[in-house]
Amino acid sequence: MALTGIEIYKFLPKTNCKECGFPTCLAFAMKLAAKGVELSLCPYVSDEAKQALEAASRPPIRLVTVGAGDRKIEVGNEVVMFRHEKTFYRPPGFVIKVKDTDSADEIAKLVGEVTGYSVERVGMELKLDGFAIENASDNGENFVKCVELVKSKTDLPLVLMSSDPAVMDLALEKVASAKPLIYAATKENCDQMVELAKKHQCPLVVSEPAGLSELAELVARVNDAGVEDVVLDPGAREFGHSLTALTQIRRLAIKKSFQPLGFPVITFPGEGSASVEEEAVLAGQHVAKYAGIIVLDRFTPGVSYPLLTLRLNIYTDPQKPIQMTPGIYEVGTPKPESPLCVTTNFSLTYFSIAGELESSGFPSWLLVCDTEGLSVLTSWSAGKFDAEKIAKTVKEFNAADRVSHSSLILPGGVAILRGELEEELPDWKVMVGPREAVDVGGFLKQHWAG
Amino acid sequence: MLAVEVPTEKWTGKVHEVTLGGSNGRKGVTVGGATTLPFLHFEGAMPNRPVVAIEIQDKKPDDWPPHLISAWGDVTADPGAWAKKAVEYGADIIALRLRSAHPEEADTGADEARKSTDKVLSAVDIPVIILGPGVAEKDNEVLIAASDVAKGQRIALGNCEEKNHRTIAASCIADGHVAIGHTPLEINLAKQLNVLLCDVGLSTDSIIMDPDTGALGYGIEYCYSVMERLRLAALGGDKMAAMPMISPAGAESWRQKESKVTEGVPPSWGDHVERALSWEGITAVILLNAGADIVVLRHPDTVTLVKATIDKLMAT
Fold first, then answer.
1. For the structural domain made of B18-314, what CATH number should be given?
2. Closest-CA residue in chain A for B260?
């Protein structure tokens, strides 16, 4: 757990020697608490203090990297239980399960589809993150062949799933440089799996369904043996059990700085569900409630799209709302005679008005102004949404070329801008729309002839 | 052995319990009463499971996508028949939306509202929620009529907003109903409306709050955090944040492009039916995890899925 400046100060020499570059030890302590400087700047700090401060500055949940290269999955380093307390930092990786009992053709096709899968939302390309290859055949040769096949078709990170250390070793010989996640060290095979993780320098899942005490015990053993990059599998699969286990692990890590459980967690929603729909909602729950890596049994775009959207939403920093890129957006399939509405680039404002236009039955043009992510009234009162800005945006994106009319619909909340805007845009007729997005359908029905 | 002691929160607050129905021949459903965050049975009690209401409308919806309409078949033409079918599909509560009363629709008035409400009340013996068209003045007119018809049946009336809270609260008090207070995505506004409702004499066992829902992809993160914060405040002892919460997850999901549009979308959006059902299901389950006590859904398959999910989350 992070220490406050005062707590850190207690560990410092309190001599105010200034050699660290700060006028007093307290000032240095404050800067340390804000993580703005390194403790090594103080030449007189005792070893004992160093140890205590290092332990305290260790992140409560270790950052673990799976895979190598641009698309590697980095999870951990979370600091809160609830996103509103700060934010959730590292979105969980979605990996799709491949079984070595499937035919080579099926596997090649699936791996190609998943690797190429991409869906666009608010100007971002959302993608899936990797594959978990399961030794379902219990045959080592099949497993190694399957791992090689998957690796030849993708650069995405891999999770290798076999309980047999000898088989795991063979597979790792082929793909260790890609830093796959080893699944898993259990009570039975722990020592051998630890050796493999060390030999191949790969992260290791520690799996123990008997309970959190037993899991912590096993993790401590793995850590003592020299493997630090650990991912936890508490064995809980179903809705209730996984919610309880993941919540308890997160609490122990964040509130108690309990190191043996201070690692990301891997979940298997497919194993806790009776259908693909159930797998989707359980995976959704895992996104919100504390998973680091989510293994999906089935790939289907109709489920991937909502799950990727959910991950984007939940991992949005509450202090930095998603902003829309300014420009002219099409809602439905608008024609030159369709209405042209003006709004701000705060994503929630955009989605409210776009959603209402969508259901209004009026395909429309939506002109999004750069208001630095503020809503209509907030940006207006902050001077970021005024007649000049709107006029500039209308010209910048050549709104006049899109429509055959010259009417511009202004949000009702900023009706006051109408006169000024008509002066700025003498060729346009400015209409004042409703104050609330929900009323735009009614407004268009009444006032939009064209 | 490394003994792990799981930290538990010592909550002092409790979510108010609210019962719908439960008298004059109508089955009762009680929500609220939790002394823990959703489904964390290891540190507190959830005496009442969250429930699923099915939304029906007083006339056949003309803007629902074909596979949502066809899931219901002919019954959409008659609210009584629709309500019965919804009971078959597992509804804990029927939520009747008086859509025709909307000024942009048929703009029907009190008489129609009485008729539709009466039809539903006579058709089923489970609790009923009556939702107005969402225009404050019009809600006032039709909800008061519905309240009168349903006197003694302990239904819930929504939306009650700051603008019309006095009349709706008065009606709830007179006829023994529950008010659903709706506020736009802001914790203090939600609490403020609860205070106003209590000030005019409604008791805490007669208020449900709708702190606003954004569907998946359309602001769900705001509504998730608002609900989570309200629930944390309730458990922390704030009685004006401790009303059970309702979320129209179905209506919000089904009005989005992802659920409505079948053609001309990118192939990465996948199968339309699968996508639309996941959209509604994920929206509902995420909000149940944030603290929703009632989710109002539209598709029968989502109802089955969400009810099974609640069963599993309630299992200890």
1. 3.20.20.20
2. A359
